[in-house]
Amino acid sequence: MAAKKDIELGRHGEQIAEAYLQAEGMRIIERNWRCRHGEIDIIAEEGPTLVVVEVKTRSGRSHGTALESVRPAKLARLRMLAAKWLATQPQTFETVRVDVIALERFAGDFALRHVRGAI
Amino acid sequence: MAVARTRSVALVGVTGRTVEVEADVGNGLAGIHLIGLPDTALSEARDRVRSAVVNSNYPWPDARIIVSLFPASLPKRGSQFDLAIAMSVMAAAGVVPTARIAETFFLGELGLDGRIRPVRGVLPAILGAAQHGDVTVVVPAANSAEAVLVPDVKVVPMAHLRQLVEWLRRGDEPPELPIEELDEPPEPTTEPVADLADVVGQPVARRALEVCAAGGHNLWMLGPPGCGKTLLAERLPTLLPDLELDHALEVTAIHSVAGILPPSAPLMSRPPFVSPHHTASVASIIGGGSTIVRPGAVSLAHRGVLFMDEAPEFPRHVLDALRQPLESGRVTVSRSIGSVTFPARFMLVLAANPCPCAQAEDPGETCKCSPTIKRRYLGRLSGPLLDRVDMKVTVARSSRRELMADRQFVETSKTVAERVHAARERATKRLAGTPWRTNAEIPSSLLHADYRPSPAAMKPMTSCLDSGTLTARGLDRVVRVSWTLADLADKPTPGEAETTAALSFWLGVRS
């Protein structure tokens, strides 16, 4: 299981990502939505588009970069989760997009990369 | 972001085709995608290249990388593209200057630590690259001795990725060729340990072997076991002259593709001698393979000797598969991935026992085979195949007295090789200006136009043609052998003596 400090790192990363997305002009709909198939870190909306965001935070590069740790299988699962979430909602969206936000800690500070439309 | 381009070579059979390798480092999820019909070994290049770059302490772009190999329709296989892929990615990422790699060819497999490892088929690949004129080719250091055989190509041997990147960054002359000096093997690589003088008691077969060597003809030896058929065949290479440079490059290219080039002798200057076992399959003789088409024994024996000992023991379809290469001098292997043509101009030497029990018919010995069994045994050598064999000799077991008497007539390989050499020179002089060098290569049309013996000399053949013992192809072969006999006797054209002798060699075995 993930150690306590890893969970804290992930929480912290998600907060940074949320603040960043709001600064980018997105409206946050929900955070850490769970169902029996998995979890969506952030659900946001940008104009007519529903944005499903995966936040990946790494404390360094010793185990590879944060961005490359998100594999196609993970993105496919997020897409499936987006459909599950939409099924619970009354509202509809024109398009659905999956984004990845990769955070890496360098010397106490975080470097952020945002990939729009990963699939 | 950035795109960078470089070049490498893909092998189709024994010909190299230029492949452009492009890398695009751009936005998207980090990862590397390889497109352009790669096979499994090439797909794994993604992991090898990444580890090699990272372990050489160069940055690996944390971005979406697409590597494309052109032409996209040509299937590419093997690991020799590793270096070109690494270079294009590193140039697109700004690690090495793009302009420096655009015109250069890269060949080599990468180790996980960044070592550049040797690959097979370097010689034909560089021959393919050389078609673009004055080119620079980066090769693994271990392949450098083979690579420098091609004239007018600047070869840059490299042992490690770091060494290569530093060179590209500095932009100066390549480091001095660290070609490991060969331990002086320009002496014939197969030093004749076997000598024709070892074979006592077979004067006719020795003469046939000499004619064979002089003209590049095919030979069939029929005789009981123990009379020296195998010994004779194994001594044929000792009578053959060294290969000329262009032929040596052809032979070396084939052996390089097959991956059996001896590292100590990168240039095969001696004619090869290939002796497959009689359990060989068609694919091993002709060439084949489902994903990678490899040259078979006929191509490995190109410009040399293919010796099939115990020929009737070979499966019949294997023997009959030899018919096409014997006629055309090349062999086309067709598979679902495409067809590949290999050169296959070889001298065929067949050896056969007269019957399966292999007891001689000499008095005092007991052959238990019935005539039907004997006929069936030799019947495995099909008529069309034997029609392509220029010379057929029956070798008999020699008596003690014959052996003793023949002892004073045996000649060493060196003596005979000198006569063969002189005869070949005469043939080459006569054939100057044509692509052929031996009498066996002269095409049929030319044989009847420019090289037709006098009507008087043709007389013994015409009667055989009339009676049906000689086919039109057989006639061509008899005429070719008679030219060789004339060359050996230093005559300007074959006379009746030569044509009669050639005809008797052709008819040789009649059971």
UniProtKB/TrEMBL annotation, chain A:
GO function term, MF aspect, one: nucleic acid binding
InterPro entries per record: Restrct_endonuc-II-like (IPR011335), tRNA_endonuc-like_dom_sf (IPR011856), UPF0102_YraN-like (IPR003509)
A Pfam family per the record: UPF0102
Keywords assigned by UniProt, alphabetized: Endonuclease, Hydrolase, Nuclease
Alphabetical list of HAMAP family matching this protein: UPF0102
Family label: Belongs to the UPF0102 family.
Name of protein: UPF0102 protein SAMN05421869_111359
Phylogenetic placement of the source organism: Bacteria, Bacillati, Actinomycetota, Actinomycetes, Streptosporangiales
From TrEMBL, chain B:
One example GO MF annotation: ATP binding
Residue span, AAA+ ATPase domain: 215-399
InterPro entries per record: AAA+_ATPase, CHLI-like, Mg_chelat-rel, Mg_chelat-rel_C, Mg_chelatse_chII-like_cat_dom, P-loop_NTPase, Ribosomal_Su5_D2-typ_SF, Ribsml_uS5_D2-typ_fold_subgr
Superkingdom assignment: Bacteria
Family the UniProt entry places it in: Belongs to the Mg-chelatase subunits D/I family. ComM subfamily.
Protein name: Magnesium chelatase family protein
